[in-house]
Design a protein that fits this description.
The chain is mostly helical. It has 1 helix and no strands. The longest helix has 33 residues, at 2-34. The radius of gyration is 15 Å and the shape is rod-shaped.
C-alpha cells in the first residue's frame, strides 16, 4: 500500500515539474513576443 502511494506521488511530482517547465516556456514566449 505504501509503495503504491509513493509511486503515485512520484508520478504527480513528475507531472507537476513537466507542467512547470511548460508554463515557464509559455510565459517566456509571451514575454518575448510582447516586445
Amino acid at each position: 500500500m505504501l509503495n503504491e502511494c509513493s509511486a503515485i506521488l512520484n508520478e504527480c511530482r513528475l507531472l507537476l515539474s513537466m507542467v512547470n517547465k511548460q508554463s515557464k516556456v509559455v510565459f517566456y514566449k509571451a514575454q518575448t513576443t510582447h516586445d
